[in-house]
Specification:
The protein has 476 residues and is an alpha/beta fold. The protein is built from 17 helices and 16 strands. The protein folds into two domains: 162 residues, FAD/NAD(P)-binding domain (3-Layer(bba) Sandwich), CATH 3.50.50.60; 253 residues, Polyamine Oxidase, Chain A, domain 2, CATH 3.90.660. Strands 9-2-1-10-16 form a five-stranded parallel beta sheet, with helices on both faces. Strands 12-13-14-11-15 form a five-stranded antiparallel beta sheet, sandwiched between helices. It has a two-stranded antiparallel ribbon with strand order 3-4.
């Protein structure tokens, strides 16, 4: 007789993708257990008082345009489980040294009007994304669809998206403001800006800012994880925290096991259940840049030189296109620069629950070479001070995390890589291994559901959703 299974599926890891996989399976009537090593669910969506009592900081992800875009998030009732989105009036601000900041307003036209000679070019490229974002999300947030669901639309997008950001900027723009803004968007790729496909990141990050804004979760990103967990439990799913897994052999019997981990971890946990050739490919998977992060408790708002920067929760600090491109290129060469490109979040301006009365929270990070342990606190602080003189005087306390500390916080952040691996043309849709169903492995019981599968990093749940769908299709 076949072995009895305690569960239809066990999911290892309770980050957004692991929870999305479990929810998708539970909605299909499957019995599901989630095992999480940490004492709380969430992965990249956890929050804590990192500096002073009453100051709530998001340990990793704070700004969530992909959660609003995600087909998975749009179909589940997270608001019924306490999740409330706060959408600042401006998606992102990009302050400059010698002119007003560039703001991504919800209106494409309002933003374009501030870009001088590049107004028309910017407007045309953004309108395509804003007018068709649900269709683009269907095709782009998952495994490469063959054939695409919207081939003509995808082709129009691809004419601009396939290029390096460096080429795109020099081809499409002639001024200084639009290239600087585009560089900040494209740098979210965590790739050098002369790499193919970085234009796609620049277009999508900017377009989503116009389409849905860049929202934050009221009370902290932990509320995203809490809502996902509450919904899963409502569906009958089980979650066990503080339950690390050292080997697949420790798990109860199950028909399928889905791992919200990166390839190197999967090889360690389940390599003896997989063919040696496949394990070698997992171990050859490429990880990308790390990040160095600083969280601050402040005694008041950041004193931006341009006061319009207070209209957003998100800022890109790096000045010109050339400065940002040089910073990202240096990190890929294993170097550190004095003026790194910095991403900053000032969420308590729009969510007072994150700080005591009169106080504010903020965090910032820069990209660093994989595994770097060099302290970048001063360089990040100086970049904020550059655009907000007097910022240092507002600091009450700070907490820092280098790549080693980030990996200790979340084992998926190997070497400080928060994207689950390089997202270049070689490893975007073929992550972790080139297969017709990238979530599957040669062992029909084992699946991967982390950001090391398409569509990659970000709080969208689509990696877990597609992995669970693959399980369901294989077992109709």
């Amino acid at each position: 007789m076949p072995a009895r299974h305690a569960y239809d599926a066990i999911v290892v890891g309770a980050g957004p993708n692991g929870l999305a996989a479990a929810i998708t399976l539970a909605r299909a009537g499957r019995t599901v257990l989630v095992r999480e090593a940490h004492t709380a669910v969430g992965g990249g969506t956890r929050s804590a008082e990192l500096t002073l009592p009453g100051y709530v900081h998001d340990i990793c992800s704070t700004i969530h345009p992909l959660a609003q875009i995600s087909p998975f998030f749009r179909q589940i009732p997270l608001a019924d489980h306490g999740l409330e989105w706060v959408v600042p009036p401006v998606a992102v601000a990009h302050p400059l040294d010698d002119s007003p900041a560039v703001l991504v307003e919800r209106s494409v036209e309002a933003t374009a009007e501030t870009l001088g000679p590049d107004a028309g070019g910017y407007r045309r490229r953004m309108r395509l994304i804003v007018d068709h974002w649900p269709a683009l999300a269907d095709d782009l947030l998952g495994p490469l669809p063959l054939p695409p669901r919207h081939p003509l639309l995808l082709a129009r997008f691809g004419l601009n998206a396939v290029w390096p950001a460096d080429f795109f900027v020099r081809w499409r723009f002639t001024g200084r403001r639009a290239p600087a803004l585009f560089a900040g968007h494209a740098a979210h790729s965590m790739l050098p800006l002369d790499a193919p496909l970085t234009a796609a990141f620049g277009l999508l990050i900017g377009g989503w800012g116009h389409a849905v804004g860049w929202p934050i979760a009221r009370g902290g990103s932990q509320h995203i994880a809490a809502a996902l967990a509450a919904y899963l439990r409502q569906l009958g799913g089980e979650i066990v925290v503080a339950a690390p897994v050292q080997s697949i052999d420790e798990l109860p019997p199950a028909r399928h096991m889905l791992f919200d981990v990166t390839p190197r971890q999967l090889a360690r946990l389940a390599g003896h259940k997989l063919p040696a050739r496949y394990v070698r490919k997992l171990l050859a998977y490429r990880y990308g840049l790390g990040v160095f992060k600083v969280d601050w408790a402040l005694d008041g708002p950041i004193p931006w030189r341009d006061p319009t920067c207070a209209r957003t929760a998100t800022l890109h600090l790096g000045g010109s296109y050339d400065e940002i491109a040089a910073s990202e290129k240096a990190a890929w060469r294993g170097e550190h620069v004095d003026r790194p490109f910095v991403l900053l979040a000032q969420t308590s301006l729009f969510d007072p629950s994150r700080a005591p009365s009169g106080g504010q929270t903020a965090w910032a990070y820069c990209h660093v070479p994989h595994g770097s342990t060099l302290d970048r606190t001063e360089q990040i602080t100086a970049q904020v001070e550059r655009f907000a003189p007097g910022f240092r005087d507002r600091i009450l306390a700070c907490s820092v995390k280098n790549t080693v500390a980030l990996e200790a916080y979340n084992a998926n952040y190997l070497g400080g890589d928060i994207n689950g691996g390089v997202q270049d043309w070689r490893q975007l849709y073929s992550r972790p291994v080139l297969r017709a169903v990238p979530y599957s492995t040669p062992n029909p019981a084992i699946y991967l559901c982390s950001s090391a599968t398409p569509p990659g990093g970000g709080v969208h749940g689509m990696c877990g959703y597609h992995a669970a769908r693959a399980v369901l299709r294989a077992n109709r």
